[in-house]
Design goal:
- The chain is α/β, with parallel strands linked by helices.
- The chain folds into three domains: about 100 residues, Rossmann fold (3-Layer(aba) Sandwich); about 210 residues, Mur-like, catalytic domain (UDP-N-acetylmuramoyl-L-alanine:D-glutamate ligase), CATH 3.40.1190; about 140 residues, Protein-Tyrosine Phosphatase, Chain A, CATH 3.90.190.
- The chain has 17 helices and 20 strands.
- The strands form three sheets. A nine-stranded mixed sheet has the order 7-8-6-9-10-11-12-13-14, sandwiched between helices. Strands 15-16-20-17-18-19 form a six-stranded mixed sheet, with helices on both faces. The chain has a five-stranded parallel sheet with strand order 3-2-1-4-5, sandwiched between helices.
- β1, α2 and β2 form a beta-alpha-beta unit.
- The radius of gyration is 23 Å and the shape is globular.
- The model has no long low-confidence stretch (mean pLDDT about 90).
């Protein structure tokens, strides 16, 4: 890390470079690369009319377009291919381009190569957005200049020239980003690993191996934080080359962070605890957020004081779309948990409330089994409203669960999210909680979970 980015831009002059997709990750770089003199081609499944206003700027800069169903034809005869995070690494056309000599990389890989400052990176199946944000907030409280990026925040390579050695980068990384990474961060965090994105990975092992990549290129000077209770993250201890720290809500750990018998979140140093804050003082709801806080504390313990960790724990109210309070309407409390794109995230959402509630779930099918959340659904839900591609799979799993008949759970199927909100509103009574926690991705109806969550909030506001 730390190579001069100026040399990079000088080096791409005249080179044939293809960008796959015009999403947030690539949008700024397309123009920057074109202005630097690169021969840029944008490959996108959308039509020219669907690309938005920025397409006109690209056209004036001489960017070429390969659009529509055959957009991957634009990958032929390229020297560099900029892959977007959502584009599968082992796609036939991309593999073929690599065999023909193209360098396949991404915005985040370039950022890791040229970033001059320390990098914290967080991955995992659940909790990574909140954990990444907490790490950033704690470092800010300590007075650091923090650059938040990856899956949250913004694309960071376009601003890498502005970053100085004293700054800190905090990034959230998905398996899609990690699968091709050839560098690891200074501080690597793996929250947990459970079945996820199996519609885009050939099997669970490929998904696990992608997550492991966050550790594999570290050195003995680096640091890793792993979830102690998750079998897969526990096994990753064998990949750690530098300092290893654990986080645990259930057990005392030698080094890292854990919850003691009196409910204090503690830092652990060679078995010696330092109390930071009691769980009763934590503003974020739910035991899963205690784990997220412990994870963040373990990650920043060498740079952030106990006082500043405690301050963040007592004041940070959460990120958008993660058990986010939306409104109280006629005594009914509505919560947006659109970020819950897997059953384990929905389980965490259900466990954040001490009453039976109304759950709206369902969406795009990632080929994940829903049986793991059935026990919590039967225990915590009185009305289950299902929509989207996974509605049938969820209903079949729930009805087959032990104790379904005794639970008196009512299940209603609806066409879409507006119908789901309307139904929940009609069925809810004063004192009820309505939780939108889909346990599924958004892609059957929305481009991402943020758009889905925003639509849900709009629907609730209009009630």
């Amino acid at each position: 890390m730390g190579r001069q980015v100026k040399e990079f831009y000088e080096g791409i002059k005249g080179k044939k470079i293809a960008f796959i997709g015009m999403g947030v990750t690539n949008r700024e770089l397309i123009a920057k690369f074109a202005k630097a003199g690169a021969d840029v081609t944008l490959c996108d499944k959308k039509s020219f009319e669907e690309l938005g206003e920025q397409k006109n700027e690209y056209k004036e800069l001489g960017v070429k377009f390969e659009l529509g169903e055959n957009y991957l034809g634009g990958l032929q005869n390229q020297e560099i291919i900029m892959r977007s995070p959502g584009f599968e690494y082992y796609t036939k056309e991309l593999v073929e381009a690599g065999k023909n000599g193209a360098k396949i990389t991404s915005e985040m890989e370039l950022f890791f190569e040229y970033c001059p400052c320390k990098i914290y990176a967080v991955t995992g199946s659940d909790g990574k957005t909140t954990t990444t944000t907490l790490i950033g907030e704690m470092l800010k409280e300590e007075g650091k200049t923090v650059h938040l990026g990856g899956n949250i925040g913004r694309a960071l390579f376009p601003i890498v020239e502005e970053i100085v050695e004293e700054d800190v980068a905090v990034v959230e990384l998905s398996s899609f980003q990690l699968i091709s990474m050839k560098q690891s961060p200074n501080i690597a965090v793996v929250t947990n690993v459970t079945p996820n994105h199996l519609d885009h990975h050939k099997d669970m092992q490929e998904y696990i191996d992608a997550k492991r990549n966050i550790l594999l290129h570290q050195t003995e000077k680096d640091m890793a934080i792993l979830g102690h209770e998750n079998d897969i993250t526990y096994s990753m201890r064998e990949d750690v080359k530098g300092d290893l720290y654990w986080f645990s809500r259930e057990n005392l750990v030698e080094n890292g962070a854990c919850l003691d018998e009196e409910g204090y979140l503690c830092l652990m140093n060679n078995g010696v605890p330092t109390r930071v804050v009691n769980k009763t003082q934590v503003k974020l709801p739910g035991l899963h957020n205690i784990e997220n806080l412990l994870c963040a504390m373990a990650a920043v313990q060498k740079e952030v004081t106990v006082e500043n960790m405690a301050k963040v724990a007592q004041t940070f109210a959460g990120v958008q779309h993660r058990i986010e309070p939306v409104a109280e309407k006629n005594g009914v409390h509505w919560y947006n948990d659109s970020i819950a794109t897997s059953p384990t995230r929905t389980i965490a959402g259900l466990r954040s409330f001490n009453q039976k509630l109304i759950l709206i779930a369902g969406g795009y099918d990632k080929d994940i089994p829903f049986e793991p959340m059935v026990e919590d659904v039967l225990k915590s839900v009185k009305l289950l409203i299902l929509t989207g591609n996974t509605a049938n799979k969820i209903e079949v799993a729930v009805r087959a669960g032990a104790g379904f008949s005794e639970s008196l759970l009512q299940i209603i199927r609806v066409d879409d999210l507006p119908h789901a909100v309307k139904t929940a509103n009609e069925m809810a009574t004063e004192g009820d909680v309505v939780l939108f926690s889909p346990a599924s991705a958004s892609f059957d109806s929305y481009p991402n979970f943020e758009k889905r969550g925003e639509h849900f909030k709009q629907l609730v506001d209009q009630l």
